[in-house]
Amino acid sequence: MMDSLDTFRLYVNDGLSDEEIAAQAARYQPLAQDLRDLIVLSIQSRGGDDDILAARKHLSDAKSILERDRETGPYGTRFNDSGTFRTWGNAAIGLRNPIAPPLDLQFEDDGRVWADFHLHAGYEGPAGFAHGGVSALVLDQLLGDTARHAGAPGMTGTLTVKYRQPTPLGDLRCEALLDRIEGAKAFAMGTISGPDGVCVEAEGVFIAPKWMREQREHTGVQGVQ
Ligand SMILES: CCCCCCCCCCCCCCCC(=O)SCCNC(=O)CCNC(=O)[C@H](O)C(C)(C)COP(=O)(O)OP(=O)(O)OC[C@H]1O[C@@H](n2cnc3c(N)ncnc32)[C@H](O)[C@@H]1OP(=O)(O)O
Questions:
Q1: Protein residue with least CA distance to atom 30, ligand 1
Q2: What is the DSSP string of 150-192?
Q3: ipTM
Q4: Structural domains in the chain, sorted by start
Q5: pTM to 2 decimals?
Q6: How much distance in Å is there from the Cα of 15 to the middle of ligand 1?
């Protein structure tokens, strides 16, 4: 089990300049998008044996190239001296993660957090609709980031999800607000909406873990992102 020390090892100031970060984003983001396209093609291709074998050979070559120089393990949270944070492996917002829809969260001054996003055919649960676990993933991230945006970052303690109507695949919007903060706990609520209105509602409790609260007491620093 990871303890708080292990967690801190995944919070790294890697000293990159903002220019270097922008160059990395420009390099790796298109790769994640290509892989997202491949996820959809894996489901939708009608290729025969020859086409699929040929495509797999290209993918195998791509894997060999990408393996030449690589890291191992999770990406963690990286930041630099100017305070640019990167969670590029994150399953919901990670710029380098093709599993992420991704959510491009918008943070408003009034505390509201929202994103327009797209769920492709790879997020299917019931025929033609989004998997309920994927909706929960989106809402967990959205509400967690809403708590963080309000200055109360924390781990999800409880996420309550109410599925009002099936969520169609395709273009969707999610939005959330902070409800209140009580000590170590921040309460946020939000929705996912499709063309016919709200499909999913959620409430979440985000809790600053004990070690983070102790760190705050000792250092006065609010904690990690
Ligand atoms: C690495 C760290 C960075 C964190 C900063 C991240 C910020 C960046 C945000 C970006 C957005 C990410 C969005 C994705 C977020 C996930 O996906 S997180 C992953 C899923 N969640 C987890 O794995 C959490 C696992 N559980 C835990 O780590 C611990 O049980 C918790 C939730 C941190 C609480 O532990 P604790 O600090 O020891 O709690 P404890 O002192 O016993 O209780 C504190 C208070 O919380 C209440 N409480 C405790 N557990 C619960 C619960 N499960 N439900 C409701 N209330 C509870 C207690 O009753 C108590 O209330 P009061 O008595 O103060 O009224």
A1: 157
A2: TT---EEEEEEEEE-S--BSEEEEEEEEEEEEETTEEEEEEEE
A3: 0.96
A4: 1-100 (no CATH), 103-219 (3.10.129.10)
A5: 0.94
A6: 30
